[in-house]
Amino acid sequence: MSGKLVIGNWKMNTRGDSARQLAAALLADGETNREGVGIAAPAVYLAALAEQLKGGNIALSSQDVSRFAADGAFTGEVSAAMLADVGCRYALVGHSERRQYFREDNAALLAKMRNAIAAGVVPVLCVGETLEQRESGAYLDVVREQLAILAEIADGEYVVAYEPVWAIGTGKVASLEQIAEIHAFIKNWCLQNVSGSDKIRVLYGGSVKAENAEAILATENVGGALVGGASLDAGSFRVICQAAGKMI
Ligand code: PEP
């Protein structure tokens, strides 16, 4: 796929009806119903959405994937094979809310990445620092430590999403200089530590909105956007996808 990738993260929002309505609005619009646009929906709605999206171009993503690969006694878990079975193209891995509320660490995240890749699902590894880490100046070390698991993955496709925790759902957006700095850092780290790294796409996430999407997406080394709140509104998401679509 060439061009920018935009994935809407619905988080723990929507119900059956509202998920269907939102997907219908995205399907009806050529700016959102196209290659390079995805939606990360709640797990319980993935199968129904996969049916609804059939024949369109919107990619389906999960918001997580189990660190356990094999079927078995792992109550509450959804495996990578199950996600592939219902038609997920992507799986978010290590979103900051998962790291914060579910204490996901590098060992678990590496297992999730490997399971997704083995099942043919493209994992989207989310990295990013807290406000405290940003203000203390430790943010590059934090991101480097989160990226480290990529050096353990021999091959397979994946995406990285840089999402400063202090910019997620807060309305605070990283400045274009901050975004450019960290995206260059991630790109260089990948070039030095990961094979095939020239193909790794790095998304920006954190209060991306209709108003700021174009400038963020035009920033050097930004390969697309991971969009939370604004992806729940078809009109806002459309504008973000339209901005991305113009940049091939
Ligand atoms: C996210 O959930 O990944 C995110 C970036 O959220 P928001 O766009 O609402 O900040």
From TrEMBL:
Its EC number is 5.3.1.1. Substrate binds at residues 9-11, 169, 207, 228-229. Transmembrane segments: none annotated. It catalyses: D-glyceraldehyde 3-phosphate = dihydroxyacetone phosphate. It is found in: Cytoplasm. It is an enzyme of class 5 (isomerase). GO terms for molecular function: triose-phosphate isomerase activity. Keywords: Cytoplasm, Gluconeogenesis, Glycolysis, Isomerase. Signal peptide: none annotated. The active site is at residues 95, 163. PROSITE patterns: TIM_1, TIM_2. The keyword DNA-binding does not apply. Pathway: Carbohydrate biosynthesis; gluconeogenesis; Carbohydrate metabolism; erythritol degradation; Carbohydrate degradation; glycolysis; D-glyceraldehyde 3-phosphate from glycerone phosphate: step 1/1. Homodimer. Involved in the gluconeogenesis. Catalyzes stereospecifically the conversion of dihydroxyacetone phosphate (DHAP) to D-glyceraldehyde-3-phosphate (G3P). Belongs to the triosephosphate isomerase family. PANTHER family: TRIOSEPHOSPHATE ISOMERASE. This is Triosephosphate isomerase.
